[in-house]
Design brief:
The protein has 184 residues and is α+β, with helices and mostly antiparallel strands. The chain has helices at residues 2-8, 27-32, 42-57, 75-80, 85-96, 108-111, 115-118, 176-183, and strands at 14-17, 38-41, 63-67, 70-73, 102-107, 129-133, 137-141, 144-145, 160-163. α3 packs across α5. The longest helix is centred in the first third of the chain and has 16 residues, at 42-57.
């Protein structure tokens, strides 16, 4: 940056390095920009997934439940029936992709391969299949808004704005709108 200052002068360039700024996801912010918030109930998704697996493999309890952005399979039953856990995880992920509001679903072993998911995945609470919701969808658990997410949809990222002409960056958490106001 010092060499740029000397060669072309500070007022003649801007450097913008951005992590991943987020638009506020609280319901009021979304309502202000006319984006309705929809609800995704993980308990109902787990129950439907259990029914789906019963249709494929017989009347047994194939799903232990859902928590956060995960579906937990009954691994003991899968081992007793000598079925492939990976095959069932893939079938469940494909089934979840058909749900309204699901942006992506995959077996947990695949999620760990993606750097962006791996860094924001809470491995201790991860089920056998993980999913992420589309924007403007809120996760519900037991008909209440869930507060524990398995995947942090808004992981913290460093943000640096620097230039001879950009106003000083405010301290604290920034949204995409805050950054846009600094730039434009």
């Amino acid at each position: 940056m010092e060499q740029l200052d000397r060669r072309i002068g500070k007022p003649n360039y801007q450097i913008l390095i951005i992590g991943r700024p987020i638009l506020g996801t609280d319901e009021q912010t979304l309502a202000d920009i006319h984006m309705p918030v929809q609800q995704f109930n993980v308990d109902r998704a787990a129950a439907l997934t259990g029914t789906y697996l019963m249709a494929l493999y017989g009347h047994e309890r194939w799903v232990d439940g859902g928590y956060g952005q995960s579906i937990f399979l009954n691994r003991t039953l899968i081992e007793q029936k000598r079925l492939s856990l990976e095959t069932i995880q893939r079938q469940v992920a494909n089934f979840l992709m058909e749900f309204e509001g699901v942006q992506i679903a995959m077996p947990n072993y695949e999620a760990l391969r993606y750097p962006i998911l791996n860094s924001s995945l809470c491995k201790r609470h991860t089920g056998d299949v993980v999913f992420m919701l589309q924007p403007c969808w809120k996760l519900m658990q037991n008909d209440k808004q869930a507060t524990d997410n398995v995947i942090d949809d808004n992981p913290s990222s460093p943000v640096l704005l620097w230039s001879g002409t950009i106003r000083p960056m405010p301290q604290g958490k920034l949204t995409a709108l805050d950054i846009a106001e600094l730039i434009f």
